[in-house]
């Protein structure tokens, strides 16, 4: 066995819940620790630990990402009423991802992991579609109220001098109903726009942005306008984004969300699709499923000051966990979680000038993709893989077979 790869700066490691927590440990034990002297600062974001710390552990982990620059996160439970009962929680804690995004204020980029032996459901798609999800505000930071009786709901804005600047009736309720308000910040939208323009330039892909500004003439139109202004007035490498895009031979294109949905389905793929927070939440699952499996979608949160948080875009795979608890060996796909690790290790390696770590992360990704292309797959890919002799295995078997393949790749110079 060769010497293990050393790391200089720790990765911020955020453990999570249920089946993905089980996979997390397996991935470390089988694919990482045998090859790397893994240096991490560990935060347990498992639901019980969040409950025990009044969710302080989540805030601490986000602060640690700010300090070190790179984190990797396991999927976590966002509690609802059922979960509060199931885990005997003291409170219905907020979504850890929401909390982390609010602290880092970034953009989430989600890209499907494509393999040769799985064809997307949409026949025209030839290249991966990356979704950029604005990670601040809108319904994720809403204020809601259930009107229990007739009455009046108003939107009021009072400035810091205490002067009422705006008041408008939302609705006069004659009966019960619901109300929701939400907000966003120009600064956050601006950094969202910049992150998207930067990412498109880095990857040399077209950028599409969509909202519903025909209906929302102030809120959504504000997004459209900020994107337009940043594109023409802000510079990148000393030149306006617009000029940089022209030089790179790529385009920025704005249209309505419903129009873009229709165009995406008829496209070849290969673009970056910038979405508002909720659109990105929904569309990334749609795109992931249409490319094959939810388990094959990676996710990275990029903050305006250059911090990176990598994760899988799927959840804790609750149903598989209950099978696991009954003693069954499940065939849960660890791909997206492995790619969260490889993405984080690669970024750490790039930042620290640790070429060995970068090479390892690349080979880890190749070994996973080639294992699938050889027909060694988890159950979710059974219907999708076009390999003639498929071998459907459980998670642990898949990880062990991938490790074997990785060893071959690592032995090559
Ligand atoms: P989920 O965990 O994404 O799973 C939904 C279904 O998708 C699974 O039942 C499974 O289908 C399939 N699936 C997802 N990932 C898979 C994988 N790696 N391998 C194989 N199949 C996979 O969503 P959920 O069940 O709605 O949510 C469970 C918990 O996750 C919730 O408590 C939610 O709060 C949390 N969540 C967390 C995050 C995050 O931390 N980023 C994101 C979303 C949800 P089959 O059962 O048909 O096999
Ligand atoms: Mg979602």
Q: What is the radius of gyration?
A: 23 Å
Number of strands: 18
The shape, in one word, is globular
Mean pLDDT: 94
Number of helices: 14
Distance between the termini: 15 Å
Structural class: alpha/beta
For the biggest β-sheet, the strand order reads 2-1-3-16-15-4-5-14-10-13
Helix content: 40-55%
Can you list the ligands bound to this structure?
NADP nicotinamide-adenine-dinucleotide phosphate, magnesium ion
Share in β-strands: 15-25%
Main β-sheet: number of strands, strand sense, barrel status?
10 strands, mixed
Enumerate the spans where pLDDT stays under 50 for 5 or more consecutive residues.
none
Can you give keywords for this protein?
413 residues, ten-stranded mixed β-sheet, two-stranded antiparallel sheet, alpha/beta, binds NADP nicotinamide-adenine-dinucleotide phosphate, binds magnesium ion, globular
Brief account:
With about 425 residues, the protein is of the alpha/beta class. It has 14 helices and 18 strands. Strand 7 (about 150-160) and strand 8 (about 165-175) form a beta hairpin.
